[in-house]
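INFO  loader      accepted 1 record
INFO  loader      residues=261
INFO  predictor   begin
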Amino acid sequence: MSCRGQRGLCFVRARSRNRLVLTTHGRSSGYCVDPIEKKPLNHFLPGTPVLSFDMAGCILECKFCENWDISKSREFDTLSDRASPETIACAAMALGCKSVAFTQNDAVIFLEHAVDAAAACPAAGAKTVAVAAGYICPEPREEFLRHVDAANIDLKAFTEEFYRKICCAELTPVLETLEYLKHETGVWFELTTLLIPGENDPPAELDHMTRWFVDKLGPDVSMHFSAFHPDWKMRDHRPPPGTRFFRRARSQQRTGCATPM
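INFO  predictor   done
INFO  writer      dumping tokens
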């Protein structure tokens, strides 16, 4: 059976003339001006706005995904906004944004477009920020991070079982990315872990994770813990006690967005 035109799990890559190509270069599900702390990055250009954009699809299958309407979309209508890398950089400058962020889903899947956008940013006086899971092979990892000024890596948990069962991925490559960031690059990075009751929050696991963190990355790298709320395929799980969540429609979340044209 021919695989011509067949798309991968990520949705945005397909076979064309015996090559694997990015089919969505220059397209996005939307652009939005955010505070840099929303990424979250607390020690990189604090108090400044960042121009954020994303695409449909994702490299992971996290059952708790909060952005599943983007990351799990299989509709090209989700990718209705177009902008060249130069247009993105110019829009950031015009809107007073000090940086451009690849966010909401994993920037690794649209690496070529992210790299092109990052290359256009310095001329506009903007830095580049990647929000990613760190699940990437060594060769593209080196190329990708060479063009990034700051990153927030989403460390899902600290067991291989969780990564396989909940994310359809592996923990080891993520840890390798974190060590690469620390010891082989000048990229400013911070970590985020979403705590899911009964899944990745046992005290022994958190102790193991934080000890590894200090030993391999040092005490100066910031780590954020965020609270789980039921979403996508884990709506049967309860949120942590004492937490309240307010879900807003995607259109409401993007009120006041700036879409480069």
